Every structure is written in structure tokens, then in C-alpha cells.
Automatic annotation (TrEMBL):
Residues of the Luciferase domain: 117-182
Region ranges (Disordered): 20-42
Name of protein: Luciferase domain-containing protein
Top-level lineage group: Eukaryota
InterPro entries: Luciferase, Luciferase_dom
Amino acid sequence: MTKLRLKHFFSTNNLLDASSLQQTGPSYLPSAPLPQRRNPRPHIIPRILPQRQYPEPISPATRSRLHSLIPDLASAHPGLFELKPSHTEGKTADGLYAREDLKTPNSVVKETVGLAREIAHVHPAENSLHVWLSERDAKNVIEGGWGMRFPPVGGVPPGWIFVYAPRDDGEMDVVESIVKAAVGWVTGVRV
């Protein structure tokens, strides 16, 4: 972990720069480009891992909606998803996973070991998320001000990104569309 932090500290790697992500390929977002997120971007905790933002005010209704999104998707589509502790989050949050016996995952998912079919998880303390999107959708999310790239780590695909916590129901609508785009990318099924 220390080597990773030092490598990132001395690199010129800008996690807000989406230029390395492909502009072509599949998109599962309902509208592209996404609306621009209202500024300012949240303050990010200055460490490489775990990737976090400083908590911002969020209404109880929006927080409830955010934290029920992953379990609600899992219970509504048991043939697509498993709900289990997120391996990428150190098993401290529920992760939404594509079922191992799923017949429709895209070939990138089948070949990527680093995420083990994980689609998304919400960070309970400050309400941000990590999601696995197509590179085209990840680029759109970053350029719209909704998130940032995950630090380059072996085995983690470039579409695995950090999404900022929604501050209200309007932002939650966009975050929900981002999570559903991740579902489409990983499973090949739109929900």
C-alpha cells in the first residue's frame, strides 16, 4: 500500500483527466452527455486508497434512496445479481455483483479478475460510490463532473470509477442512471 501511495504521489496522474478513456464503444447511460453536475466538486480526502470524499450535507430521503439502491436492484433481479460484501471495499459495504452463472456478461467482465464481477458499491460513511462502467460512459461521467478515475492499479479496469455523493434527489436521479449503466455494462441487460 505504501509503495502505491508513493507512486501516485510522485506521478503526474490526474484522476479528473478522462482523456485516456475511449470515446467509442458501448454506452448504457440513458442520455449522453450527462448534465453537468453543479459545482463545486467535493473535496477529496488526500490519500490514494481508500478513495473517499469529505462528507457533504445530504437529505435523509436522498440518503435512504441511495443506500437502498443496491439492495433494491439485487432483490428486484435475483437472476442477474448477488448482494454480498464488496471485496474491493474490504467487505465493509454491500456490493452488487453479477451472478456467476449469468449467461450475458460482456467478454471484458469475463476476462477481468480484479473486480470479480462487482458492479457497484456505496460507501456508507460519506455516500459516494464506486461503479464499473464502459470506458465511454466513464469518460462521460468524469467530464460531466460526477466523478473521477480510480488510481491505476493492476487488475482494475479503467471503467472502475469513483462517483461523488448525490446532494439531492435531482443528483440522485443521475447517480441512479450511472449505477444502471454499470449494470448494463457488466451484465449486458438494461434494468
